[in-house]
Amino acid sequence: MYRRILIAIDGSELSLRGLDQGLGLAARLGAKVDILTVSEPWAGGMVDAQGWVVGYESGPEYRAEREQAANAILQPALDRAEAMEVEAEPIHVLDRYAADGILETMAARGNDLAVMASHGRRGVTRVLLGSQTAEVLTRSTVPVLVVR
């Protein structure tokens, strides 16, 4: 049925429920899993001694910090996959919005199912914050399992 499942996580308790659902499905199907976390663009800078704004996001410290944060999310997920005997590969996408990173990864990796969580925001909150899950659902060419 599904051979390669992408599971998108952000480290939140809700996304870990999605992880567990995706890993359970993969275990039952004998599917491989790509566990993805996306670091959204950082829209700031730092001021140097002369008062110039320096693009922190281009420096090695920025990348190292983002990779360290991603590994803190991915490693426990990989440990869960190993405990469930599911073959999993970690993926970190840097400086992309979640929906874009998920969709681009799915296309590149040939995933035939995506599993992700949704906070279920409605009304003004959804308009102001946007819905990365809705964006993935709208643009995906493969099935998306949404966990709430």
Automatic annotation (TrEMBL):
It comes from Pseudoxanthomonas winnipegensis. Belongs to the universal stress protein A family. This is Universal stress protein. Signal peptide: none annotated. It holds the Pfam family Usp. Residues 1-148 form the UspA domain. SUPFAM superfamilies: Adenine nucleotide alpha hydrolases-like (SSF52402). InterPro entries: Rossmann-like_a/b/a_fold, Universal_stress_UspA, UspA. It comes from the Bacteria.
